[in-house]
Every structure is written in structure tokens, then in C-alpha cells.
Amino acid sequence: MTEPNKWYVTTPIYYVTARPHLGSLYSTLIADVITRYHRLKGQKVFFLTGTDEHGQKVAQAAEKAGKDPKTFVDSFINAYIDTWKDYEIEYSKFIRTTDSYHVQAVQEWLKKLQDKGDIYKARYEGWYCTQCETFLTETEVREHTPTHSTRSAASDFAKASTDRQGERDIVPLCPSCGRGTVYLSEETYFFKLSAYQDKLLAFYEENPDFIVPKERAKEVINFVKKGLKDLSISRTTITWGIPFPGDSQHVTYVWADALNNYITGVGYGQKDKEQDFKFWWPADVHVMGKDIVRFHAIYWLAFLMASDLPLPKQLLVHGWIKMDDQKMSKSLGNVVDPMDLLHKYGADSVRYYLMRHMAITHDGNFSIKDLEQTIASDLANDLGNLLNRMVSLAQKNDLMMVPEQAIWDESAVALRDECLNMLEDMESYMDEYMFHMALPRIWKCIHQMNVFFHAREPWKLVKEDRQAFIQIIAATCHALRTVAYVLWPFMPEKMAELLASLGKPSDLHNNTLEQLELGRWNQSFTLTHIAPLFQKPELKGEAVEPVSTIPAVDEITIDDVVKVHLVVGTIEACEPVEGSDKLYKMQVNFGDKGMRQILAGVQKYYKPEQLIGKQGVFVYNLKPRKMVGLESQGMMLLAEGADGNLQMTTVASPVPNGTRLR
Ligand code: MSP
User: What's the whole-number average pLDDT of the chain?
Assistant: First the structure.
């Protein structure tokens, strides 16, 4: 029996051949955000991470370093533990596959499968990628054998099988990492994977949401439909691995060892932990990169089916962080050390950037410029400055104790409603792991808070109507408190600072989210002036002048016309750009196409409230440009009137946001 109020999340366990890089941080961070979000929802969460320490890849790296494998892996463990600590990764347990309880439990598990008749001994002949620790299928060998060979690719597998590695020019390349493979021919133990083919296909069909995103499921299903061969699960040509029970010549195949961490980490195979295992298993979500889906969606499920254990509920498959469109990886030498970033920008800024910038299920390029831009604009400008301005103004006017308000005026009620809408939207994005959508939605609310604060001009109002002034400060405090809680899974330390500045504790008792959703703005606040939450990095982006002229009238063809995407969007938030007397920074809602930040030089012609809520027409596929250090992700179409005033262009009656003009 599993308790519904528990949540069990895992990361892949990392090969310890070097220090963690940004890609490893990314998987771990996703699991941490999920963990904290479920804690905010009041659930008990178990978050398992760790290291994958056996196998040929690790053994070879150790040999290269002139160390025995255990000493070699031990030398990197602290780098993992320290990096996770500095990045505020709140895991429940760190598992190492060399831990004795794991080793014993894997051996017990193998014995059970042997007794059940799911394991048999035979000869393995085929190609193996050490880098990915994976066996290639015949189809993969056929499809990934270099074509410069004089033989036809179709005959390569048969030929290669007899040639072994005698002829280097026909070594197939690994379909996943592109490196050369090695030919294995050895006596091994096999797991009867083929016996689970139909059960697996039935499971995928009955559980269409098992793999997120769904597209990845298609690849898995196609692979299984092509026919599963039994899986070799032991090796005799290496010694660095879990000894195979009852046969000292064999060590366990590293994936058969590693995948089991998900159950041994919560107590499987440990007499004193049976209750823990029953409580936590099955996992609610296994987080992983797209390169290792097959191992989880096929081998892992089949292993569990063979063991009569419940199956995990979901696989969350993320894309790769790339540098100049190449996967960031240790062997390509293009890795970014998370610790360098942390020292320069701080953990929370990097956490925010990775979760905001990367669409979780897609690959994304990492760029220092974008990171700096995001810190300056979202964190320092939009959020940090609002807190700073509000507290400074309160301090200047002797209002560090902000009393509870009995009634709220219309604009405060509108802001509270926006906070409630944000909570609802945020929750539905977070439940789907769409962090890159949840954050812009939270930011839309922060923009509304800025609009509220600036439009009400509390610095003027304080002289005329102190009660109204107090109310603006109180409403801003409530709204900031709301966003601090929902941003806590992303930026735990900074949000604790923000809450401390409002005089609120950052310990999240069980029903924090539920309480916020009640929308009771019944708090008093004790303000403290703190140092700016975020420091603006020195921006490397170049300032570009705003473009607001009508295009030249050279004749163009219809092909040119279709290149331009003119799209209708609603301006959800609008505020002056600091230091510019022309530009507004707007958040424009393009429906399914998402939210965009667009800058337009129309301060002279419109007040923010005249633009907010209006539908306009925008050049949607204009390459993002920088203006006074801020990125504009499109262009607002403007018409110059006879009086020289610029007017926004709009549609005669409302159309769905995201509608393209034709
Ligand atoms: N040891 C196996 C996992 C066993 S889980 C039972 C393994 N280790 S790994 O260190 O190579 O990769 C671990 C995770 O890091 C994978 O999910 C992989 O996708 C992720 N990343 C490695 N480089 C990455 C990027 N450049 N970007 C995003 N994630 C990437 O596979």
C-alpha cells in the first residue's frame, strides 16, 4: 500500500569519471524543483540521487588516471556532494552503487530472477559502446556502420560478427554518442527480455502518459515493436562490477546494477527497511536525459515486471544543454563547471536561468549573455527592485510595521485576484513539469505588481492620503509574499531572504500552497531593509536603438511577405524601461505561442494602463534585439498619425491570441 500523500522522485545516478558538469546539475535541479514544489503542496517527499560507480567506462577512466577504480571514484564523490550542497539540492539520500547494501540487494535480486528462470547462460556476440555502456542491436549496427566500407552496410553485421575487431574500418558507431564500438564475444548470463515484449507494449498502451513528453514514447514503442532480444547482464572481460551470484567469473552488467538503485535506495532487499520500501515504492517520477530513456522504459520496466514489483508512475525526459548546438559533455571538452558559475552569479540565479530558459523537454543552448541578461532584467529589475523600492519608501515614511488591512480598495483586490489566477496557472504548469511556462506566468504577476506600485504613485500619495499609502505598501507585501513562496522551489535562498525582509519565516509548513490559494490577505508585516536581492552583472550585450520606423517601400514578392509572421497578442503588462524616456517594456501574450517581452518606444503616446489588456499586432519572428540592455523579442506595429503621434495597430474585434495575419 502506498500513501497518496507521498512523492518519490529520482535523478539518474551519475558516472563518476569527472566532477559534475552543468548537464548533471540540470537533471538534479529538475528533481530538486519537483521535490520542493511537492513539499509546498504538503506532501512527504523522498528525493534520491547518487553515483553510478561500476562498469567498463569507469574502470577505463580509472586506469587512465593510474588509480584503482574505488580510489578513483572516491576522489570525485566530494565534488558531487559539495556541488549539490552549494546549489541547495535538498536530496533525501545519496546512493553509491559501491555501497554494500546496494551490492547485496542486487545480488539477492539476481538470485530471485535466476530461481524464477528469467536468467540463463549463453554466448554473447556483438558490438558494445563503452561510453554509453550499451549493446548495439543488429539494426543499429546496420544503420551506423560507416559507409566508406567497400562492403554493403547490410552485410556488415554478419561480416563483423566473423571478423570480430580484426578490421577496424567496419567498426560501427554508437547511435547515441557517435563513438566507435568494440566487439564482444563472451559467455554471459542473459535476462529473458524478449519474454516481456508483449507485456511492455500493453503497458505503454494502457499508460499513454507514462513518458513525458509523449513523443519520446513513440521511439520506445517502435524500438520494442522491432523485436526485443534477450539482454546480456553479465561480463567476464571486466572485473569492476558487482560479482554475479554463484559465478565468480562474472560481474553484473552496469545497467542491471545501476537501475536497481531506484529500489535499493528506498530499502529494497534490506530486512530493516521493508516498511520504508513499501511506503515509497513505486517512484512517482524518474527524471532523466533523453539519451537514457530506452534503459528506463524497456530494461527497467522488464526487470520490475520479472520481479513482480509495481512499476514507476512516470518518466520525465529532459533535453540536453548544448554549447554552440553541441551536447555539453566531458569528452567533447565543452563543459561548464557549475562551481565557476556559482562563484560568479550565485546559485539561485543559475537555478532560475536553467529552469526559465530551457524548455524542459527540448534541447537548449547555454549562453552567458542570456544568463546575465536574465539576471539583470527578471531578477534584479523586476523582482529585486520592486522589493527594494517598496521597503525604501516604507522606511522613508516610517512604515516598517505594516498593519493588517480590514478592507482593500479596488486596485488591491485586482492585484490579489491576479495573484490567485497566477497560483492556479502556476500549479497546472508545475504539475506538467512545464517550469519554463510556470516562471513567465509568475513573472506576468510580478509585472502586474510593478504596474500597480508605479501607477498608484505611493511616493506622491503619502503626502495626501496616508491610509491609501499604507494600503499600497501592504498589498505589495502580500503579493511579494505570494510570489516568494511559489518561487521558493526555484530560488530557495533568495526567497528566504525576501521573506525575511517582509518579516515572514521561510519554513514551509504543510499547507503553504493551499493557504495562499485561499487568498486571505490578512497579514501584518515587519519590514527590514536588506541588501539588493540580486546584483546586476555587467552586461556584455550591446545596446541597440529601438526600431519604430515604417519599412522602406522597395517592391517585394509574395515570398518575402510570407517570411514575416505578423501575429496578434494581448499586452498583459507594461512599464517604463528604467533610464529611458521612450521605451516601454511589455509582456505580450501570444496564446499557444507563449509570452514574449517586447519593447516599444511609445511612452510619449500611451500610459501603461492604456495599453494593458489591448490586442496589438506584432512582428513575431523578428530576431530578438537588445535595447538599452534589455531584450525585445518582437516588434509592435505602429502607425504614425497626421499629428506625428504613434498609434498601436490592432484588430477590429478580438481574435484568439497567437492568430497570424494573412
Ligand atoms: N549512469 C548513467 C545513468 C544511470 S541511471 C540508473 C548515466 N550517467 S551520465 O553521467 O552519463 O548521465 C547522467 C544524466 O546526465 C543523464 O540523464 C544525461 O542525460 C544527463 N546529462 C549529461 N549531459 C547532459 C547535458 N549536456 N545536458 C543535459 N543533461 C545531460 O547515463
Answer: 90
d(CA 350, CA 22): 10
Question: Among 148-157, 386-395, 495-504, 593-602, which is the least confidently predicted range?
Answer: 148-157
Ligand 1 center to residue 23 CA distance, Å?
Answer: 7
The response to whether residue 327 sits with its C-beta less than 6 Å from ligand 1 reads yes
Q: Alpha-carbon torsion 86, 91, 93, 95, what sign?
A: negative
Q: What is the pTM of this model?
A: 0.79
Exposure b/e, 533-564, CB count within 10 A at least 16 = b: bbebbebebeeeebebeeeeeeeeeeeeeeee
The HSE-up count of residue 34 (CA atoms within 13 Å, CB side) is 28
Q: Is the CB of 14 under 6 A from ligand 1?
A: yes
- 250 Cα: distance to centroid of ligand 1 (angstroms): 26
- With the most atoms of ligand 1 within 8 angstroms of its CB, the residue from 106, 291, 327 to mutate is 291
- Asked whether 260 lines ligand 1 (CB < 6 A), one says no
Torsion of CA 397, 403, 405, 406, to 10 degrees: -130
Residue nearest atom 6 in ligand 1 by C-alpha distance: 259
**Number of neighbours of residue 154 by Cβ within 10 angstroms:** 10
The three three-digit cell numbers of residue 409, written as one number: 480598495
For residue 356, CA distances in Å to 26, 438, 489 come to 12, 8, 13
Query: Which residue's alpha carbon is nearest to atom 12 within ligand 1?
Result: 14
**What is the separation, in whole angstroms, between the first and last Cα of the chain?**
57
- Residue 159: which H helix or E strand, with range? helix 153-163
CA–CA dist 617, 635 (Å, integer): 9
The whole-angstrom separation of Cα 299 and Cα 102 is: 19
pLDDT digit string, tens, across residues 112-128: 999 999 999 999 888 88
To 10 degrees, what angle do helices 385-396 and 492-501 make?
A: 20
Most confident of 123-137, 298-312, 540-554: 298-312
